[in-house]
Automatic annotation (TrEMBL):
Keyword Iron: no
Region forming the signal peptide: none
InterPro entries reported for this sequence: ITPRIP-like, Mab-21_HhH/H2TH-like, MAB21L/cGLR
Organism this protein belongs to: Aramus guarauna
Compartmental location: Cell membrane; Nucleus outer membrane
Coiled coil: 38-82
Residue span(s) of domain Mab-21-like HhH/H2TH-like: 404-477
Name used for this protein in its record: Inositol 1,4,5-trisphosphate receptor-interacting protein
A Pfam family that the UniProt record links to this protein: Mab-21_C
Gene that produces this protein: Itprip
Record's keyword terms, sorted: Cell membrane, Coiled coil, Glycoprotein, Membrane, Nucleus, Signal, Transmembrane, Transmembrane helix
Length: 549
């Protein structure tokens, strides 16, 4: 713009200087060719006028361009501001949506109940461990040596005796069964706390599982809740077992699903085997008018077979054998003439495919599951893999590691508290699950014997957190970090995690009782341990601790 103004001024000054009337010649006379000069001056004036118009047009164009650039800059700045505001609102909306979704999930899980009493419990639970006067490692070492260590030898002798008798009993059972019609019984396996060496509460009870299979030409076809079939939420962790012929299609022939005409025959199945009488399926221990294996029928058959087997070999032993519990059909008791007795559980199971996961016919009832499931739904047990995992991890831990000691002490405290205030929703299996999670989460060196106190506190804090959230996930189901050496079935690793504390959401009275029992156990920890602990000089504590752990 300044350059244009300068040009206009220069043109005007030049025109003034060259105008003939302003600077006449010295003689003051008008030349002869005046008209020609006037004509040239007009042409000159016209050219200057055109130049001036052109310069003004250029100046106007420059001003318009400048304004357009300024307007564009303003538009860009305004768009940036609007975009920033939009992005901010979008992000804020997403955060609000996520918070609502998290709240909805927690609400569905029952974490936010609309009762003030439970919220008060949660407030207490969050502070319960902070003010706890916890026994030191010296007291814990003395307690472990006096109360727990001495039971190891008793468990080993009892296991040996029970296993020998169970093998003899099952051999007799095979001899009394009809091999062409009855189920085929395999060798028994020991599982649970007695075989993982952490049982502390008496009476000691050995848990034995007995796999069985159908007679030829039949086989078992199993379905689990995570295999894609529809199972209700309360049947998570269960499966069904279908009794089929070995050459029968898994999905079944269309002749079983549609009504064929009288003049039509199935080319795959003869008339003799297209329909099986209901009596035949009942002989195979199936639920009435179905092909699904009935757990109640299996237990009735097994009790009758065990009774026949004992009658055959009873003359060899100087004790009596009887079924001890009505609600646990596999519970047996050996009664000696001296009055002493030994209890053990002998439970029939069905193998899941070619793995060491088993469908168990009856599972010990707890206050968390007061309602009996359908007899065609079988609970899956991973006890064999749990035992293998503990053995595998133990090889990587320091000598005299404290993981089993922690579980034993916690199991003792909980059992002792339940004997004082009544049963709660917590079981020894929940306590073992806590230990399994911590074994996988913490490095090996953290389980050295001198860290018993710290690890026991970790287990209590972890259990406190799980109770607060009502979430304790099954160790194997949905756990993608299971060691490959175990050969664990991939279908269960890819399944959704199974919350063992889900029943707490449905049974709030049991949950409140469990929380109260946990609080009492924490408050009574020192008293319960000191009751079985003899105070000893500090000089001897280190030696006792090393020997006991």
């Amino acid at each position: 713009m300044p350059v244009g103004i300068f040009r206009v001024c220069l043109v005007v000054i030049t025109a003034i200087i060259n105008h003939p009337f302003l600077f006449p010649k010295e003689n003051g006379t008008v030349p002869e060719n005046t008209e020609e000069i006037i004509q040239k001056m007009k042409e000159r004036e016209e050219s200057l006028r055109l130049a001036q118009l052109r310069l003004e047009q250029e100046i106007a164009d420059q001003e318009a361009t400048q304004k357009a650039l300024e307007k564009a800059a303003e538009v860009v700045e305004e768009s940036k501001e609007k975009k920033f505001q939009w992005d901010m609102w979008t992000a804020l909306s997403m955060v609000i949506f996520l918070l609502i979704e998290l709240w909805r999930q927690d609400f569905q899980e029952g974490n936010w109940q609309d009762t003030g009493g439970e919220e008060d419990d949660m407030a207490v639970l969050g502070k319960a461990f902070k003010g706890l006067a916890f026994p030191d490692k010296t007291v814990l070492a003395s307690f472990y040596e006096k109360r727990i260590l001495g039971t190891t030898g008793d468990m080993a002798r009892m296991r040996e005796m029970v296993e020998g008798f169970a093998d003899d009993l099952l051999e007799a059972l095979r001899s009394v069964c009809n091999r062409d019609a009855d189920m085929e019984v395999e060798d028994c396996m020991g599982v649970g706390s007695m075989y993982e060496n952490w049982r502390v509460r008496k009476p000691f009870v050995c848990d034995l599982i007995v796999p069985f299979a159908p007679p030829e030409p039949y086989c078992f076809r199993s379905q689990t809740w995570c295999s894609g079939d529809s199972f209700p939420p309360d049947k998570q962790g269960y499966g069904t077992i279908k009794v089929c012929r070995a050459n029968e299609d898994v999905t079944g022939c269309i002749c079983d699903k549609t009504k064929l005409g009288e003049d039509m025959l199935c080319l795959l199945h003869s008339q003799a085997n297209t329909t099986r009488p209901s009596s035949e399926m009942e002989d195979l221990l199936c639920f009435k008018n179905t092909q699904y294996l009935d757990a109640d029928q299996v237990m009735k058959w097994f009790q009758i077979a065990v009774t026949k087997a004992w009658n055959r070999i009873s003359h060899k032993y100087e004790f009596d054998l009887s079924f001890s519990l009505l609600d646990s059909p596999g519970a047996l008791k050996i009664k000696f003439r001296s009055g002493k007795s030994i209890a053990f559980n002998l439970t029939p199971v069905v193998q899941y495919e070619n793995s060491d996961v088993y469908f168990i016919s009856h599972f010990p009832r707890t206050s968390l599951a007061p309602d009996l499931p359908s007899s065609i739904h079988w609970f899956l047990t991973f006890a064999v893999y749990e035992r293998r995992f503990i053995q595998l991890v133990s090889k990587t831990l320091p000598a005299n590691a404290c993981h089993v000691s922690c579980l034993q002490i916690l199991s003792f405290l909980h059992g002792k508290q339940c004997s004082l205030t009544g049963p709660s929703g917590l079981t020894n299996y929940h306590l073992k699950t806590v230990m399994l999670h911590l074994l996988q989460a913490r490095p090996s060196q953290d389980w050295a014997s001198e860290k018993l106190e710290a690890r026991l506190q970790d287990m209590l804090k972890f259990l406190e957190k799980c109770l607060h959230e009502k979430k304790l996930y099954h160790f194997f189901i949905g756990n993608g970090k299971v060691p490959a050496e175990l050969g664990f079935p991939i279908i269960f690793q890819r399944a959704e995690p199974l919350n063992l504390f889900r029943p707490f959401v449905l049974h709030r009275d049991v949950y409140r009782k469990t929380v109260d029992t946990f609080h009492e156990m924490l408050r009574n920890t020192s008293a319960l341990i000191n009751e079985y602990t003899v105070r000893i000089p500090l000089a001897h504590t280190n030696g006792i601790h090393k020997e006991s752990l």
